[in-house]
């Protein structure tokens, strides 16, 4: 399969799946990114955020690879994701649910030995009553809202909840946490403000571990590392801080096949709506990837594919199942039916594609399609 990915043509070694686009996920690079983040935060730990199918990369494969590297803490968004992953995770490793409990799913959560991130006083009470019902002491993380106004216990309840926790032997508060709103903006004063709130919370919950950093937060410095940092996008190769050089390895590469080529005279319209009109004679190639595969439609007349390091601009609109690119700059015989071009790879990172599409690398990754032939390396 590496032969197929590198020789630039499917027909040399036909895909067994019938797919015409190939997503390669480099679990070696993932492991090295994990190790790099670990060494940045040591003696604090790195927890892996594997919500949304590990940002589209495949949670099962990602979790297995990270377990092999020694990762023992995993975060997902929803209980359903946690229940699916739990059987993969050995004893001694834990799975946290960021979105917390839903009314009525406390027992499922407890019996699956999954740790909820308790986001409100009500959720805390529900978790405590589940513990009483099961005659079990249950572990919890508690998230506080230090300024993002999205999830977490509002700070006005900090003291009363801390007291309730002290008096309640049913719940073991393993972790107190918060989430940074502007961690990717190193100069933003909100980071310091949130950290300072988090430090007071950590003092009150002195017996619990504390966590505030996501990927970008790790790059804000030691003070943000706490006891455990929650890394998502940086594991998967996304740049943690906008506009700086990304020291992490790319994990994902995407190639797609040419399904047709044509030469068009000046004045020819290309694609839906005829938004692109050829000004000269051009050579076009239609590529087997479209918005149904997660390629943002906002790349219409903006994005590019690459071949031999040459930028091949998207011309016309992104269709559901294909794009058309301008290959005039390449020698005539370089690309033909069945050849592969690079969409994500050494010449175009997920951050490059995100910038052209007016979005963030997170969205590029989490939308990665399911028609691709996926290869884990
Ligand atoms: C998604 C998420 C993370 C991971 O964020 P990255 O920026 O991808 O590292 C960490 N913490 C919380 C609460 C999250 O929702």
From the structure above, extract its key features.
single chain; 377 residues; alpha/beta; 9-stranded parallel sheet; 28% helix
Structure in words:
The chain has helices spanning 2-7, 27-41, 51-55, 59-68, 79-85, 106-111, 121-134, 158-167, 189-204, 215-218, 350-357, 361-366, and strands at 21-25, 45-49, 73-76, 94-97, 115-118, 138-145, 153-154, 171-177, 209-211, 228-231, 252-264, 269-270, 276-277, 282-287, 304-307, 310-313, 323-326, 340-344, 373-376. The N and C termini lie close together (10 Å). It is 28% helix and 24% strand. The strands form four sheets. Strands 2, 3, 4, 5, 6, 7, 8, 9 and 10 form a nine-stranded parallel beta sheet that branches. Strands 1, 11, 14, 17, 18 and 19 form a six-stranded mixed beta sheet that branches. The radius of gyration is 24 Å and the shape is elongated. The chain is built from twelve helices and 19 strands. The model is unreliable at 1-6 (pLDDT under 50). It is α/β, with parallel strands linked by helices and 377 residues long. Bound molecules: pyridoxal-5'-phosphate. Residues 49, 51, 98, 179, 214-216, 230-234 line the site of pyridoxal-5'-phosphate (PLP).
